[in-house]
Structure formats: structure tokens, C-alpha cells
Amino acid sequence: MASALRLRTLGGLAVEGNPPPGPGAAAQRRPLALLALLAAASERGVSRDKLLACLWPESSQEKARHLLTQTLYALRRDLHAQELFLGSSELRLNPQVVSTDVQEFEAALAQGELERAVALYHGPFLDGFFLSGAPEFERWTDGERARLAQCLSRACEALATAATARRDHPAALEWCRRLAALDALNSRYALGLVKALAAAGDRAGALRYARTHEDLLRTELGASLDEAFAATVGELRAQTTGGVPRAAAGSLLRRVGAALAQHYTIERELGRGGTTTVYLARDLKHNRAVVLKVLHPELSSAVAAERFLRQIRLVAQLRHPHILPLYDSGEADGFFYYVAPYIEGGSLRARLEREQRLPVQEALQIGREAADALDYAHRHDVLHRNVKPENVLLDAGQAVVAGFGIVRALHVARQERVTAEGLRMGTPAYMSPEQAMCAPDLDGRSDIYTLACVVFEMLAGAPPFTGRDAETVLAQRVTASPPGIRRLRPDVSVAVDAALLKALATSPLERFQTAGEFARALAV
What we know:
Low-confidence stretches: 242-247, 407-424
Shape: globular
Number of domains: 4
Structural class: alpha+beta
Oligomer: single chain
Radius of gyration: 25 Å
Strand content: 5-15%
CATH superfamily of the largest domain: Transferase(Phosphotransferase) domain 1
């Protein structure tokens, strides 16, 4: 008998049915979290003690048990399913009453039905779902999310390998695109896509994607292509008559311009990063200059597009005077884009390249304003993860924080902190120790550390840790203490020196616990 209800956990969290469930417990976060715990456990079930620890950690044992009983009752009542749960000490969902996509996904993998498993995966586990005041639940979610994403990656890789072996180049190319979109920083996946494009006869496309990946590594990790990747690129260049057409960039600009011609006029390209090309454009409706960021076509597979747009929606919810707002976003003729204000003052990086060090009070003001922006974002459950001078814009002397995780959208927005090969998200010169160690449970204190690195650079002319390569810089995070800023800039006050040392503490427990606290410490 088919289940009347269905719990969707891959790509979000919701109870679905025909007719859809009405308002009530099934639309509330804690009951939904309980259903997710039971869904992931499948036939194993979950003990009541684990449910209490995950969902009501701050309540007494007696009160937590009462809340669990109330939640189970409310779910049965509101979903009109008295047989929703099975078991007593070990609870599990009744598969005759509710089906779950995560259980079907894992069953398909176990049965070797890899294409069916991939089709069931509509996004990261509990994507966009957050339960405040429940750190154990969040840690569990992170672990499950990473585990299931790795299962998906292995399935896609197996499908790509099989398609390559039978010389089905179109199918191999499709699976390689899926892999590269799942983990934009994984060089093994990127190399597979480059080879698949070349095998399908698109050597120019292979070289374009290789360049995109190289830009991404440099921008996000301060790294370069490994020897095997570089050798493959060299061979392709030698085989490609004339290399990648020089007109490719101009062709892309014309195509994007044509797709958005009813709303925007593109004036010129401002730059190209690892995931997006940035244009200066004019908003025709409001007659204003805007920045138009377009996701690289090489990354615009179905999965990448979903995550790009999902992350854009996340950023769009943030409303703060020191956070770059979002004007528009969407898809046009296969291009995924978003539109933000054009800040004429440029980035903090451009300012530091001109002046190296800033006046003390100006540097502290920028630091305070950026900290206020991060504090607001953290209170709305959004981490930045890549605070650096390039992502701090200067608008009439005021700081505006940009770059809230667009790469992260391609790399399983907010959830997959560690890739299958242990790649880190962030920029080495500003990365927190926990980012350097690929910790699975980053929080706002990581952003505080990275902002402290930026403030230090504004005052000293260089970040607190430097080295000949990214790994040397990252190693210093956990093996060396940061220098006191007064040794390099004696006109900085003792209080600010102490604030920076606290914000740069190796252990998150020893730092300011909120970005707001850091902002106040910089105001002395």
C-alpha cells in the first residue's frame, strides 16, 4: 500500500501529501527535526534519550520527556496518522504511513540503482533548515549532510566511469558535469570534466573550464593546478588549433547582453572570478548603475543552478546598512545571474594596494561596521566564511560587506564544509584555524577571526600570518601565536591590541563570542 504522506529531506525539509497537510505541528521546526532524525535512522530507530539530547538540550529530563510526548501526539493529530510511529524505547517512522526520500535514496544505492538514487537527490540533506538552541542536532545534521553528499558523489563518479568505459561520451560528460557542480573546488572532478569535454570533441570548452577551475582555486584557496591537471591542459592546448578563441569573452558578453536586454544594458566587464563573470550594467527601469554577476556557463548544470539561486535567496533576506543588498536575480536564456548596487568607491583591497596601511581610526571604523554586518548575518543564521579585503566595499567611506557565499552555493550551500578530498572553503591568508583544519562545525566565531585578520592588515599592511605558500600560512594558524599589532603599529591603543589578540585566538572559546562584542571592543 502506498504511503499517504511523504517526508522530503533532500533539498529542504517538509511533509507532503495529497491533500497537503495543513498548518500545525508538521509545519513547526522542532517536530520537523524529530521526523528528520527518525527518517535518517530508517529501521534502526532512534532512542528517546537521543531525541531529547538533540531537540531539547537545555530542558530538564522531566520537561524534555514531556515535550517529546507532546510533539509525538501533535504530529499524530495534525497529520491524521495515529500509526505514524513504531516502537517504544527506540522510535521509528511507520513506512506504511509515511515514505521518505532519504530512505529511498539509500535503498537505491544499496540495490545498485545509481541513476535512480541520483534522481532522488534534489539537494543537500535538510538544506536551509536550522534549529536554534540545538547544537547536537546541528552537528548531527552536518554529519548526515556530508555523508549523503559523499554517497551522491560516489554514485555520480561510478556512473561517469561506466559511461567512459563503454565510450558513451555524452553520458560521461553529463555525469562529469554533475560531479563538478557538486564540488567546484575538487580538482579530480574538474579534471574528469575537462577530459570528458575533450573526449566529446569540445577541446575549446575543456580549456575554458580548466581556466574557470584555475581561477576558482586561486581565488578561494590561493592554490594552483596540480602537475597532472596542468599537463592535461598543456596537451589540450597543443592539440587545439589556435587555442581557445579570443572572441569567447566577447561572445559571452553579447549573449548575456541579449538575454537581459529588456532590463539591463551591459557596459563592460569588470572582472572574472572562479564562479562568476562581473559586469557593469545599467538598470533600464531605474536608470542606475548596477553590478551584474553571471554564473559561468561551464558551471550551469541543473544542480549548480539550484544551489546558486538558493544561496541568492538566502542573501536576499539580509537587510542591513553594511551588507550589500540584492536588487534582482534569476535565469535568462540559460544564464543564472544576480544584480547588486555598483559601489563606486571600490573594494578595501584596491584601497590597500594604493596605501598599504590605513589611518588607525578609519581602519577601526571599517572593522566596526563590518563586524556589525556580520553580527546581523549571524543572528539570521548566515555565516560568511570568506571575509577578506576583496569582499569589503567602501561606499562614501562606509564599509559594505559583499560575497556572502556564492561559491558556497555551488559547493553545497552552507552545509558541506569539507569535500571528499579535504579541500577547505575560504582564503588562506584570512582563514580561521578551524577552517584550516576542515572542522565540520563552523560558527560565527570563525568569521570573527577572519575579520580580525582584515583589521590587522588595515593597520599593519599585511595579514597576521604570511608565508611562501598556502599550506605554510595555514600551518601557522595552529602552531604560532599572532603578533601584537603594537609591535608593528605603535600608535594603536593597548585596548585595540588586546581586542585583536582575543579575536585571533586559536580556540574559538577564547575569542569574542559574537561579532557584536568584537565591534564594541574596536570602539574604545
